Please model this.
Amino acid sequence: MSTPRRHHRTTAAAILAAVCLAAAALPAAEALDTAIAKAEADLAAQRQTLAEAYAEIGAEKQALVSETAALRQRLEALRRETAALEQRAQADRRGAADLDARRDRDRQQAASLAAMALDYRRAFETRLSAAEAGAAGDALEALDRAFGSQADTLTPETLDQLCRLSLQRGRDSLGGHRQSGQAVDDDGRILNGTGLTFGPLAFFQAEDGRAGLAVQPVGSLHPALYDDVTPAQQAALRELFEKGRAAVPVDVTMGHAIRLNASRDTLTGHLAKGGIVMVPLLVLGALCALVIVGKAIQVTTLIGESCRPRAAEIAAAVRNGDLEQAQALTARLGRPLRAVLQAGIAQRQASRERLEEVLFERIAAEVPPLERFLGTLAVSASAAPLLGLLGTVTGMIHTFRLITVFGSGDARLLSSGISEALITTEVGLVIAIPALLSHAYLARRVRQAVSLVQEAAVMFANGLHAQPPEPPA
Model:
């Protein structure tokens, strides 16, 4: 629209310039009329041209308006399309997020299933009986190679192999299964033979004819042959392998009772596990036993509650001059009252003060033999737990030394140190508890006997120097 306006201004300027030139060249009147007429003609032409320009501009404006409207419609359509595409993109993003979450869930489920399958494989061999373990060795090795060491290496084919092997094992277990295999006897020799499995029960017959239960020892590659049965049971086991039917012994504990029985030690072997500390502990125990037995025999000869009336009776016999009866009654008394009253009878003519001194002097002489070795027993009872604690400390030091060298992966390597630590404590307590109880009993009996002797001695002195009653007036 600006281009036609500039063209119109240029044309008007040109007309004015032509009029001025014509007016200068013509005479004044003619020149003016002619110039006016020419100018009007030129002005009309220019107006026509201007009208045409306006018409052209209007047409162009209409076209531009139409084109602008079309462009606006197209823009609105594009905006709607863009909004639709954005909504679709958002829906696609939500769908992708859902797919990612579902993929993650599927991966987690697959990882869990693979881990469960791997754990089942690891536990599968522990569910096999001793005879089955040898027969399924090749299949398990092939399965292990297919499994790999990580759960993410599991494939559907490997799972199929595991399922087939498990189902086959189930079928064989329900109906009984016979297979060739190997077992280890008590001497550690590997025997070739035949194994029979009936569910969880397993039996083995060696080529030399020996038959028995098959038990899987801990950490062994081969089952162990347990043939410690009666001849009748041995014959029944052979009949089972020959005919497939017989009344045979079974282990309802699945080998646990047999392994427990095999792990039991003799008393000598049990004590030997305690180490060097067991030597002083056993010596201390023997000393305590000797003291307890000796003192127990000694306290059986001590006096009882009947000594008080006996002392009064003896004093009366002495006072009446019947020394033979007094000596006979004294001889039947127990220790230490017998020696005390014999010393009192020998000093019957002495004064009361002298008699009491003699009696208590004799009592003081009789007390040390009664209390002899009681202190030794008390010290031994106190030292036994300390020696046991010493063995515990040395055993734990030995255990930690083994852990430093071999690590803590195998508990059997640590059993020697742990046994030394526990057995010495056990033996120390076994020695100390009876020794303490015996010491308490023996000391109480000695104190009781000394108290009874003192009472009897006082009663003897009182009875010997008692004044006869005055006759009635």
Notes: Residues 128-263 form one domain. The chain has three domains: 2-105, 128-263, 278-464. The chain is about 75% helix and 5% strand. Strands lie at 177-184, 190-198, 201-206, 211-215, 224-226.
